[in-house]
Input
Amino acid sequence: MEYPIWIGGEPVYTAQRKKIELPYDGALIGEVCQADAATVDAAVAAAHRAARVMREMPLAERASILRRVHQAVVERKEALAHILSSESGKPIREARLELDRAAQTLLFSAEEAHRVCGEVVPADAAPAGKGRWAMTLREPLGVIAAITPFNFPLNLSVHKIGPAIAAGNAVVHKPASATPMIALELARIFHECGLPAGAFNVIPGPGGAIGDLLVQDPRVAMVTFTGSPEVGLRIRSLAGMKRVTLELGSNSAVIVAEDADLEETVPRCITGAFANSGQVCISVQRIYVQEQVAAEFVERMVEGARALKIGHPHDAETQISSLITVQEAERVESWIAEAVQAGARLLTGGARRRATLEPAVLTDVPPTVKISCQEAFGPLVAINPYRTLEEAIAMVNDSVYGLQASIFTRDLRKAFQAAREVQVGGFLINEAPSYRLDQMPYGGVKLSGTGREGPRYAIQEMTECKLVLWR
Ligand code: NAP
Output
């Protein structure tokens, strides 16, 4: 299938094409036109024109377009899930879950469109304010550049586009080069559902070549980026005075106290570590388990990892499929080898066939190796014992990242001590850190990013607060 670029409500064909392959076996699934400097310029120009239309569009109309898109996504769920699974390589059951979540994110965005408003400022609270009225307005920013990664190519895009439209902005979206097809499908759906031409443009193409152009264009008011810290830092350094939201990586940690209910804890840690083959920004990568229950916990984790069904992503039974590329799988394999060389014990998994890696469980992992201190983004989990809660919290915090973390315990005192002391954007109790509801505020501290998503919070980031005072 051939996919043109989408600019100004129309398909645009370019000579440069990229073949999209199913990562599991390399089967050809589509061919996508690639943007160059001229198409980036055309997309930003179209968005700049449409931003004026979007700014004037009543909230009720923005909400009703988003509701129609929600409905269309629900109705086309199976076809869209198939495309999503094919280009990302994620198991079809996970692609369906992503479709459900994207539909919800659209609905939350539609609802939040009704609530884009400022507040009354009590002017006469200051003696000099006597006889004045003051209020704030939330105004759209204009053109928003949305740059997204490959691992949740639909829902993470919708987390930017939904709130941007609700807030009255126009969008230029650069999807990941590996997963552009679902973004182009979404652009057509928005168009069919009545979004004005130019309010949502999609420009697939190599980030290294077109990313800088988009980020530095003076007509772009905000860059909202989800991806790696390396690219996020570059965007921030180039964005100047533009508003920037960065949703970056992590090496999420879990504390398992000796009083945790292991029946409940282990399945959540298995899903948390191995969903989407660990290619999740909040994937469970490090587990610190209190020494009294460490042996039993590790045994159950190994059992859980071995029970996962590995296979073709389109097979309904498959739980683990390939990583996004063979090179990525080789990288994760080499990181496991480095840990083992440094003294870690590999208890199960780690074998690779093409881009697919068996889920790996390691123990006694030194804190200095890559799988401890960098983001693995692969199907592995490193488990180490701890003695005191203070020691566990210190190990969780010994990270350059801070997206989400969690604790499993029956003791409220321990749970809230950890909630207060762990340095993250989100802390969960008796749930894996990979858990996310699409309406909740989501984002990181430290190298995990700045700003928050979740439609209500993203709308705050995507609007300007303007004060109006009347004497
Ligand atoms: P990536 O390599 O950083 O790419 C993300 C996006 O940035 C892609 O669209 C990429 O385009 C583009 N890009 C690359 N170079 C660019 C440049 N110089 N200027 C502008 N854009 C550029 O990340 P990824 O490998 O796709 O995704 C994995 C990363 O995303 C992980 O670190 C993960 O933790 C993070 N992530 C974070 C969250 C969160 O919410 N915090 C969620 C999901 C993923 P190309 O594909 O063309 O290179």
Summary: The chain has two domains: 2-248+448-470, 253-437.
